[in-house]
Design a protein that fits this description.
Oligomer: single chain
Distance between the termini: 20 Å
Number of helices: 1
Family: Belongs to the GAB family.
Strand order of the largest sheet: 3-4-5
Pfam families: PH
Order of helices and strands: EEEEEH
Structural class: alpha+beta
Protein name: PH domain-containing protein
InterPro entries: Gab1-4-like, PH-like_dom_sf, PH_domain
Length: 78
């Protein structure tokens, strides 16, 4: 696939993505002040990908995983 996009799927077995996020013009940040409201997500680490048309709130299971995602996406964003 295209290395400049992030795709997400309905489930692990899905073959077609629900949406493709163009990372060529985006901003990625760690949002320490925003906390997920659902209990199942409370202990996860939130980061945000902002594009020209939408804001995506993404969760990682660990701080290390979140930092890897943020750094990797940040290398693509302009």
């Amino acid at each position: 696939g295209n290395p400049d996009v992030l795709e997400y799927y309905r489930s692990k077995s899905s073959r077609k993505p629900i949406r493709t996020i163009d990372l060529q013009e985006c901003e990625v940040t760690i949002e320490a002040e925003v906390r997920p409201t659902k209990r199942q997500y409370q202990n996860q680490h939130l980061f945000v990908v902002k594009t020209a048309t939408r804001i995506f709130y993404l969760l990682a299971k660990t701080a290390e995983e979140m930092n890897i995602w943020v750094q990797s996406i940040g290398q693509i964003c302009t």
